[in-house]
Amino acid sequence: MASWRLWRGWPPASIKARLESARTARANTDALEEEMTAAHGWDHYYSEAVIARESEGDDRFRRAQVALANYQFSDPAIVLAHFDPAAPLLTRCMLLEVQVLGLHYLCPAMVTRVRDEPDVFGFRYDTLEGHLERGVEWFVLTKNPQGDIRFRIEARWRQGDFPNWWSRVGFTVLSGYYQRKWHRRAHQRLSLLAHYGSTQRPPRDASGLTQQGVDVTFTHNSRRPWFR
Fold it and tell me: Can you tell me the distance from the alpha carbon of 10 to that of 21, in angstroms, rounded to the nearest whole number?
């Protein structure tokens, strides 16, 4: 079952020990990705957006690629990723700290596939024992001949093992809202990282604001018609 705490996360030493333990954990489902359909009781959702356009001489795809591999697209106020950055991306173990209404849940996952081709880069992680969900999730960047850089997030999942009944109820009620919020912010964050890098501040207008945004398409195919 997922570890949880109220109001605060885990100290670094505890995270390190839990990460070592997660390396030997098993996947919490043995279903094949192509079998994870609504007809078989799985939720399927994806979001995508053109996050940047690369012209000759700039390096936006490469910056997005680095940020993607380092999981910098995730809003740490919702999902904070803990992992060893020196570990290779393929087989990398991560602890995803899900944060909702003061509750912190520690969910293990492992990168099981990597795509690294010309103008295509991404990875898939599989959920491990102790995750709130069961399933797989892809994060993929592509660049077309016109230079448009598209980011796509696609997941197939069903509920996993919850530490208590009220966590399961809360997940059922709130997960749709937080999923959409996290997806929107993931595309916005990766757009900023592709344009300006992780150490640069985006430009501001005369009012002191940054005018940066992308149009995100979110699609959810659920086994539960009311869950939108």
Answer: 15
